[in-house]
Structure formats: C-alpha cells, structure tokens
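I am still getting used to backbone structure tokens and would like to learn alongside you. Label the sequence line and the structure token line clearly, so we can match residues to local backbone shapes. Go ahead whenever you are ready, and we will take it from there:
>
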Amino acid sequence: MRREIIIGSRGSELALWQAQFVKTRLAQQFPDRLFEIRIINTTGDQVLDLALSKIGDKGLFTSQIETELQSGAIDLAVHSLKDLQTEQPEGLIIGAVCAREVPNDAFVSKIASSIDDLPRGAKVATGSLRRKSQLLSYRPDLEIVDIRGNVPTRLRKFDESDLDGLILAYAGLHRLGLDERISQVIPFEIMLPAVGQGAVAVEVRDQDHGVRELMPSLDDIPTRTCITAERAFLRRLEGGCQVPIGAHATLENGQVKLEGMVGSLDGRVVYRERVNGAIAEAENLGICLAEKLIKKGAAKLLDATRAEVESSAQTALLL
C-alpha cells in the first residue's frame, strides 16, 4: 500500500470542508499515511450563468473528478452524495458514505422567520427545480427567482438583492458555520430534500484494494442504508437535477421508512407517497415507492417536465 493518498475535490468552501473532514478522519485512523487534497474544477463550477437544469444533469459536479479517479491521478474522490449519478462510472464504486448531517432544506430571509410569514408575492431564490416545485405547491403566490453559485456566493447575491428569501441545504450552512443565517429549518411536510442531501460520499476505484481497505473507518451503515433506498427510488424514476424529485429515508424500529415526491415545475401537481419495510430490502423499497408514484402518473409528469426543461435550455443557449 502506497504511503501517499491523493483526495480529489471541487474547490468550493463546502467541498473543501468535506474533503478536509475525510482527510482528518483518515489521518487519525492511519497516521502512517500522508493524505493530500487536490482541487479539480467541474462543469458545474465553470458554467455559472445558466441554471443547472439548462446545462444538463449528467455529472455536472462529478464527471471531471471521476475521470481523474479512473485515470489514477487521484486515489479517492469526495462528493456531496446528492451530486452523484445513480449509476457509477465503469470501475468506480462508493467506498464509504459518511454519517449524514440534518438533510432538511433551510430558509434564509431578511424579513420573515418562516416561509409562512412571507407576504404574498414575495420573491424567493433557489437554483433547484425540486425546491421550486414544492415551494409553489405550498405557497403558489410566491415568485421564484433562479440563483447559482456556491453557498457564500448565493448568500452574497441574496444580501445585495431585493429578494425576500433564499433556500439552501441546512447541511451546507451548518458545515460552514453559518447557522445564524437560518431563519427556518424547513419541515419535511413542506419540502422533501434531494436524494442523498446532507451525506458525503467517498468514491474509489473498484480494483484499488489498498484504498478500499481504508473505507470502513469512514462508512456509516445506517446512512448508507437510507441512501440505498433513496438512490434506488431516483434511479427507477431516471431522475436528476432537471426534474423535481425529492426523497427522504429514515431507520425506525428496525425498518426503513421512505417518503418520496415528484412534482411539476409550477407546483400545481405533486405526487407524494410513503413505504416502509425491512432494512435488508432498502433497495427494493426505493423501487417500490417509485412504482407507486408511476402508477399515480409520475412518469408522464416527468416526461412532460423533461420536455419543458429541454425546450427552455435550447432557448437559453440561443439567446
């Protein structure tokens, strides 16, 4: 086993927090090894003038890092798990899933302590179609404004604007020590999170047994179980950042409880269901939940949404 291990990461403050977290944990467990973080720019970092839904959803924040991992230029990659595609690239696996932070979304506001307190017609920013759909379902009077950038950038844009609210992941704000910016931790009843939100994934080469031997020190089995159910749900629906899909799994009394949603872009239609079952059936539960929503009409809704998003993306590229 080589002594130096290279960790690949995006360069945002949050990504580097996650990479440093993994590096520190590994250094504590394996003091005879040297761990170095290498920053890799991704498409999602480079294209900042378009909404994510308008530039595609295949590995926007991961593909360049995964290419470096496949080539051997880095030894492991640290990602926000919600950024990973539901099918791993050839030769790569998720070696570890770190213990999950609170997965809820968070509401940031200059004028209101909660979404309920916003005045009619208030302007709320988000870069997520999932958040937009659920916000409009709950408060159809709101005006949703698109916003891009990493967490500090979005907060700066918000502070310099006339926006009334901003939606971000709680985990990102908390990990960067920005809890004072949170007006409300949004309940799941209002907004289900993205699949994998709040969890950190460590991706490795399938055949790199030396690095794989380090992974159990990072892996959190309850989190991995919940993520397995959520990702199976997303995979069956063929979802990504171009469609409004949310899910959240928990472990209670030896069972997996999984809730998921699929919505229209305008929030007028939201399908939402729950399933629960044995921990050993986590993946099947995700598929079962997806099938329940498909029977309600989710597949047709997603097809219509993809067509609408694609048309909007083509228009944006022509302008």
